[in-house]
Amino acid sequence: MRKHLRHNMQSPAILALDLGGTRVRAALVRDGVIVRKAALPTDVKGGPPAVMQQFAKLADTVRGDDDFVAIGAASPGPLDTVAGIVEVIHTLQGWIDVPLRQALADVFQKPVLLENDGIAAAVGEWKKGAGQGVKNLVYATISTGVGGGAIVDGHVLRGRRGLAGHIGHMRLVENGPACFCGRIGCFEALASGSALALRAGEIAANKPNSNLGQTAVISKVTSHHVIEGAKIGDADCLALLREEARYLGIGFANLAHLYSPDRIIMGGGMSQNFDMLREDMMAVFKSEALSPFRNTDIVPATLGDDAGLIGAAELACVALLDQGQ
Ligand SMILES: [Zn+2]
After folding, report:
1. How far is the CA of 25 from the centre of ligand 1 (A)?
2. How many A from CA of 181 to the centre of ligand 1?
3. Ligand 1 midpoint to CA 107 (Å)
4. Tens of pLDDT along 58-96?
């Protein structure tokens, strides 16, 4: 296989799939570059069988005249990538103990590489995004939830059953807000976009005459409202962002201590506000981190939503090459 690939002028195309809580996405990827991509709103009610049909439909859309040689799929976890089984997806009905790798192999009749979406995105940023050239990085997606993955000594860190890097569920405070996982005080429950929106909602309820309070009269307060408010100097929103930056700084200091990365890459929707968060986040990071870790680079991701698709395709490509050895 390796010989075949090396002498083939055009690298093989990989079908990359990304299962998300709100969207299912597919891309045809060649040499780490997306050739075509498409997305559908996740059929939440239909459960796994409906999502399999969505993947098949998306594959037809993106494949064009190209054929693909393998599939790289990214899914939320906890996901046992050794067994190829999705253990549970809290945000989707019916996703309990689903043998996703086998299901995809049955639909497409091609080799399937299944990876945790956080790890896939870490690989994407490592190979083609903000992590190029380093041997150690942690990728943290700060979005509706918080997830991630780590590259250590030039290798993807997978851990037992491929479950390493569930950074969103490290506990930062003993008593804190509830997390989707059922515990309290997780990094995700404090630093995610949803957590920020919840805190903004509390301010809106307590201060009905504030800008956030007025916003709440016409719509549900979101993290987007906080960002917009901060941009025009609203004191409540600026304080909320400082608090967000504080939680990120604490969480990232923990990640630096655990993984000793050359670089921490922040992805997800919240990374679009990286410049607004940077100063406070770095101040907290430097005060929380032990001295050898204080100069760790913290940068925004560069691939956006595509990191997981590109990473899954890269991993599928590597798995194919390994098979051919
Ligand atoms: Zn949690």
Report:
1. 25
2. 4
3. 33
4. 999 999 888 899 999 999 978 999 999 999 887 788 999
Q: Amino acid identity, residue 140? A: A
What's the CA-to-centroid distance between 203 and ligand 1, angstroms? 23
Please give the average per-residue pLDDT across 130-159, as a whole number. Answer: 96
- What is the rounded CA–CA span in Å between residue 322 and residue 30? 18
Ligand 1 centroid to Cα of residue 118, in Å, is 15
Q: Is 315 exposed, middle or buried (0-12, 13-18, 19+ CB in 10 A)?
A: buried
Distance 76 CA to ligand 1 centre (A): 14
Q: Which two tokens stand for residue 178?
A: 């509830």
CA distance 1 to 188: 42
The secondary structure of 159-211 as a DSSP string is -GGG----GGGSB--SS--B-TTS-BSBHHHHHSHHHHHHHHHHHHHH-TTSH
- Measure 325 CA to ligand 1 centroid, in angstroms: 40
Task: Tell me which of 219-233, 258-272, 310-324 is least confident.
Answer: 310-324
For residue 186, report the distance from its CA to the centre of ligand 1, in Å: 5
pLDDT band at 7 (very low <50, low <70, confident <90, very high): very low
C-alpha of residue 238 to centroid of ligand 1, in Å: 26
Phi, psi of 220 (to 5 degrees): -70, 135
